[in-house]
């Protein structure tokens, strides 16, 4: 199942889930609207963007933003870090076999991408985002301070980001790498395998010159686990312990354009 922007605009994702066992986990539409309007009311003032706003992506938004934007730049958030902190029982897993997706949690820093959303379409684009990211209320929308372009004299801005709701029942907390890898290896949801989510995020960051040691370590452990299951000799494939190697077109043989559309 590939979710398109048109599906989100028509709210077809929610409609398709309302008659399934996961319906009870969906945030009421009134709560989603309230959250959306609260974020709009809190957006930062200032003339620098002439009414436009930045959106910070740290996971699937990096490689599949699915929102109208006029600019994209590297940016770093301080005070939050990226981790596999959210069990996914719809998008990248099931109730019986949950996967994991990324969330921003307190502490450290995180480098990702910011997307500039034009002033005249902010509410329209935020509604698409809320139907994508806030379906179950697993995140808190926050306006965070970001450093643009990752240079010593980088300007500071405010960007909307979705941070972990630690009170949500799907919040996983800090898990051992082995547990994360186990979830990523075997889980598969409406939008495909959980391992693909890791791969595409790693590739999206590498395409923009960002090396994330945490994600790279998980990818290597995942490859090692696959090799152990297949009972390959240790020296059978000298490349299997390495993270995906970027090609000139920014892929590792699987075109990013063919990746399933993502809702976190």
TrEMBL record:
Coiled coil: none annotated. GO terms for biological process: glutathione catabolic process. Pfam families: ChaC. Its EC number is 4.3.2.7. It is an enzyme of class 4 (lyase). Residues 229-252 are annotated as: Disordered. One of its GO terms (molecular function) is glutathione specific gamma-glutamylcyclotransferase activity. Keywords: Lyase. One of its GO terms (cellular component) is cytoplasm. It comes from the Bacteria. SUPFAM superfamilies: Gamma-glutamyl cyclotransferase-like. PANTHER family: CATION TRANSPORT PROTEIN CHAC-RELATED (PTHR12192), GLUTATHIONE-SPECIFIC GAMMA-GLUTAMYLCYCLOTRANSFERASE 2 (PTHR12192:SF2). This is glutathione-specific gamma-glutamylcyclotransferase. The lineage of its organism: Bacteria, Pseudomonadati, Pseudomonadota, Betaproteobacteria, Burkholderiales.
